[in-house]
Amino acid sequence: MSRPQSQSTLEEENTKLKETVTKLKKENEDLRSLNISLQKEFIQDIEKLLSKTKEKNKQEEQTTEQSTATTNLGISNAIQEVCGRGGSSCTAMVKDLAVAVFGREVLSTHGHSGKAGNANHGSIAKPALDPGKIKLLLGENIEINI
């Protein structure tokens, strides 16, 4: 009679083990799904971080290029920021930069090219402004990516 009881006990243990295996398989599948989901979120977060880093690097490069230009012109970044009279006019900004770089006296006594203008045929030509600084003011030979 002990044999049927032990067989019954074995069958019960076998059933419990099968249930445990089924539960573990389910947990394993849930963990796999969670792992895949977390990996996708992680990849998205990394892509966002890379995008922000690239954007920040690009802005820093532009700032460096602009800073280099203002250094070559001999003006500070603070002066450059106030140029343009608070508006969006490119002409106003270039005029303000010219005043900051050359000064009002030099601009009144010198000309862009150093040649006499067509309006005053018989007049004497004014001395030319520094061509290197003029190129920097007008943005020639400077590549700024916007």
Automatic annotation (TrEMBL):
One of its GO terms (molecular function) is DNA binding. Gene3D superfamilies: BEN domain. Residues 65-146 form the BEN domain. Residues 53-72 are annotated as: Disordered. This is Extensin-like. It comes from Acipenser oxyrinchus oxyrinchus.
